[in-house]
Design goal:
By secondary structure, the protein is α+β, with helices and mostly antiparallel strands. The chain has a single domain, classed as Glutaredoxin (3-Layer(aba) Sandwich). 43% of the residues lie in helices and 11% in strands. The longest helix has 19 residues. The N terminus and C terminus are likely disordered.
């Protein structure tokens, strides 16, 4: 009976994780140690000191925050000092925004199993503009995110995929700059550039703005999405994403069928 009860608990936890993705919270930083936090993970040391609970829902260090109910397209598309990392036609009829953390296994799963066909079917065909926004969970993800933004713009998606594909080589409880650099150098980043990036306060401030703005828009973990202006706080399969995009395309001249 005890074994059966344990299996039931594991099944419930797996279902919760599949629904919520990587739902932990921590501010961006360029040093120190932390643990990737998920819906069932352990709490971390805060990026700026103190203790951070495992979830935005009960993160006392974040304090009260304003969340915009039903944000407008203008509010969703507001940008800070950093340019949007966007792919596809600027005038595509549908915009999809993905909030991601480089240490999130669900972001890796999406990138490996959903993104290739999604890109081919909708982005390359001009129907969707796909935007990546950084929402790093934990200091390890924060350091890698800084390196990601320091890559040449045309290398961003390449390095993003490498960080996800190679998570097992650099993600750990302790922040390991050498392991992160081992991935970053694969797209031509030198050690001097990497070290300088981790001290680039303007970059850190810009990334912090992206994450804080995401919180204001209702983002609570990764991956979270805006699909045609609608917030989706769960992992999306290709079928899920296609259904939502096709429905949006159908309202813009009945072109949904072309996406299939």
């Amino acid at each position: 009976m005890q074994r059966a009860r344990g299996l039931a608990i594991l099944t419930a936890l797996s279902a919760a994780l599949a629904l919520g993705g990587c739902a932990g919270e921590q501010l961006l930083a360029a040093g120190g140690a932390s643990v990737e936090t998920t819906a069932t993970g352990s709490s971390n040391a805060s990026a700026y000191g103190g203790a951070t609970p495992q979830s935005e829902m009960n993160d006392a260090t974040v304090g009260p925050r304003e969340v915009i109910a039903n944000p407008s397209v203008g509010e969703i598309m507001q940008t800070g000092t950093l340019p949007e990392m966007a792919y596809g036609r600027a005038d595509a009829p549908v915009t999809v925004i993905k909030y991601m953390s480089l240490t999130c296994p669900y972001c890796r799963k999406f990138h490996q199993e959903v993104w290739p066909e999604l890109k081919k079917r909708y982005v390359d065909s001009g129907k969707v503009r796909f935007i990546y926004r950084e929402f790093p969970i934990g200091k390890t993800s924060g350091n890698a995110t800084i390196a990601l933004r320091c890559a040449a713009p045309d290398k961003y998606l390449d390095l993003y995929g490498r960080f996800l594909d190679q998570q097992a080589t650099w993600v750990s409880q302790e922040v390991r700059p050498d392991a992160i650099f081992a991935v970053a150098k694969q797209v031509g980043i030198t050690r001097d550039q990497f070290d300088a990036c981790l001290k680039n306060q303007a970059m850190i401030d810009g990334l912090k703005w992206v994450k804080d703005r995401g919180r204001t828009l209702g983002i609570i973990g990764t991956p979270n999405f805006f699909v045609d202006g609608k917030l989706v706080k769960r992992v999306l399969s290709l079928a899920d994403m296609s259904a939502q995009i096709d429905a949006a395309l159908a309202t813009r001249g009945g072109v949904a069928a072309a996406g299939r």
